[in-house]
Amino acid sequence: MMRARMIGDDLAELAVEDGGAAQAVADLLRESGSFEEIVPTMRKVAVQFDPLSIEAEDVLTLLTNAKRNAVEGASGEAKTLVVPVHYGGKDGPDIELVAASAGLSVAEFIELHGAREYPVEMMGFTPGFAYLGGLDDRVTAGRLETPRPHVPAGSVGTIKGFSCIYALAGPGGWPIIGRTDFPLFDLDKEDPFRLVPGMKIRFEAAQ
User: Does the predicted TM-score (pTM) go above 0.90?
Assistant: First the structure.
């Protein structure tokens, strides 16, 4: 795997194993106070720094050490949250399209979707939007040709390779297979969004 490297005069990046590792490394780097910007993604952490304040070699050392310390500080298996989903109907208008892309009936797809755990790989493109890796390879549906201007909060979507959860209402182009009432956002908390990289999600059909 690629080690830490410079990608500009004031930019560097570090490859990591997954979104959880990226978040752990980013948290450690923030504690150092050495960087102007730190951006964790699905497989990398990018940093911006002031080259007048810190040498590039020292930046690479900080990145490498943070990765090692994040691995050493990992506390076993990530917690799995069970998220109930109202599949299909008005809550999941695209479930037939998604099931058909996998050659499955809707009932078979619901069983498939709930049969595995999904790691939260990263957050974006809107606040609280969680990218969940590990979707079965048989599901090949892509983004909608025409994005929706409004997707309700709690909506669960899929595209090839990923599921997602919309923590907040907003526009979106992912096929929507269902919706959850699981509390994903609480403005009264210091960290208002429930999902963060490194967590695992398991879906189950709501009763």
Answer: no
